[in-house]
Design a protein that fits this description.
Length: 437
């Protein structure tokens, strides 16, 4: 077989001849990558709520480092596929654990800022990927660079402390105080020890004491237990059922529009770089806006606008120079911006006892959408290049309605228990007459 090497000198397609009767194996790499995400973030989510944020972040980091090097030295397609499943799942588990840890240690007025900084990691990483891919046109050299960069995660062992909120909920008050004092000292902040003690006593009263998992079977039982907490109590169940479709939509749309970049007329490196810069600028703008406005109203509006722009991609004539690439860049920025908005919002509506599991559950729902996206792009793109973006836009527009029935959280403290949510379900844009309060 003779392959076009004008863009890349070697790819996984050329390495293992993923063409003709083996063509289906190419999108399978993407599909299994996201399935690995779904499985990993669900398991590590519940374990993080019991063993702690720090332990799971460190374990997942080590798994990611090892799997990155295995992917680099892979000698056949199946080893590479498995390695990608593991490295994809582990890195998303690390990010989700870090995101929750950061949000739990950030004052309520600054959670928008920290969420934005956390999301910048994806944009900066994508820009780095684009730059590396421009200079390293061999996939194995590119994977080697990823493996080397992954070694930086070893630094987590020296800098990351446990979430004081998690420590408090699990009855480890003294350790929680020590972490808070450590954070204050690192930031050169003088704190009143008596005031800290008083605040911890108040928070401890509203907390549910957790228990450790002693075996894998208990881990599975706790997984089921936390899931039941999200679906058996009326107000928490309503939040879970309304939020899940919005995550599915943004997961499918943000990754799907990325895969659909090939339908634009620009150079692949140029359009990728422009998209990431646009994403970066848009998230910075949202960081200043989101902390000053209603969370749910902002989400409803942003999802709606993103949906309309996505649908318009199909309506833009291909004959107009630069029109479709421009719409693609705008749509990508809007979709990724919605990821930032929903990631900031979702930890604020779940209790501490199940927050990490709930966030990981929502993230797994979004990655399920991401796993389906390549097939929407491949099948829909063959019929009409503008159809995939329109499908993603329509789903975003439809799920925007869910935010009218979700509680407002702007400027409010994080709930610590399920009972707290059941007693105070919060206010919504549209009142829900059948909801228990």
């Amino acid at each position: 077989l003779v392959y076009d090497d004008s863009v890349f000198t070697a790819t996984v397609v050329t390495e293992w001849n993923l063409v003709c009767d083996r063509k289906a194996l190419l999108p399978t790499l993407t599909f299994t990558y996201f399935i690995g995400n779904v499985i990993s973030i669900l398991l590590t989510g519940v374990l993080s709520d019991y063993y702690g944020r720090r332990k799971l972040i460190l374990i997942s980091s080590i798994v990611h480092i090892i799997s990155s090097w295995v992917a680099f030295i892979s000698t056949n397609y199946w080893i590479f596929l498995i390695a990608r499943m593991v490295l994809g799942g582990s890195i998303h588990s690390v990010w989700a654990g870090l995101f929750i840890l950061v949000q739990e240690t950030t004052p309520k007025g600054d959670r928008t800022l920290t969420a934005g900084v956390m999301n910048f990691g994806w944009n900066i990483g994508s820009l780095m990927l684009c730059t590396l891919a421009y200079f390293l046109r061999d996939w194995r050299h590119l994977q080697l660079s990823f493996a080397v960069i992954s070694l930086l995660m070893i630094l987590y062992f020296f800098f990351i402390k446990e979430s004081p909120r998690w420590l408090l909920v699990n009855g480890r008050t003294t350790e929680a105080k020590e972490v808070v004092i450590y954070i204050a000292e690192r930031n050169n902040v003088q704190i009143d020890t008596e005031l800290v003690t008083k605040e911890f006593v108040e928070m401890e009263k509203n907390s549910i004491q957790g228990k450790k998992i002693e075996s894998f079977s208990q881990g599975l039982q706790s997984l089921a237990s936390q899931f039941l907490q999200l679906v058996l109590t009326p107000n928490v169940r309503l939040r879970t059922l309304l939020l899940a479709p919005t995550f599915f939509a943004v997961g499918m749309a943000s990754y799907g529009i990325h895969f659909a970049a090939r339908f634009s007329s620009l150079d692949i490196f140029a359009v990728s770089a422009i998209k990431e810069v646009a994403n970066f600028v848009y998230i910075i703008a949202l960081m200043f806006i989101y902390k000053r406005v209603s969370r749910t109203k902002c989400l409803a509006l942003s999802y709606s606008v993103a949906g309309i722009v996505g649908i318009s991609f199909m309506l833009v004539p291909e004959t107009v120079p630069g029109a479709r690439p421009a719409v693609l860049v705008i749509a990508q920025a809007l979709f990724v911006g919605n990821y930032f908005l929903i990631d900031t919002y979702s930890p604020e509506i779940f209790p501490t006892s199940t927050r990490n599991f709930a966030f990981n559950l929502m993230d797994s729902v979004s990655k399920t959408g991401s796993a389906i996206a390549p097939y929407v792009v491949d099948l829909g793109g063959d019929f009409n290049p503008g159809l995939p973006a329109a499908v993603f836009g329509a789903i975003m527009l439809f799920t925007s309605l869910n935010f009218y029935f979700l509680p407002e959280t702007q400027g409010q403290k994080l709930p610590d228990s399920v009972d707290e949510i059941e007693k105070n379900p919060g206010t919504t844009i549209v009142k829900i007459p059948w909801r228990r309060s």
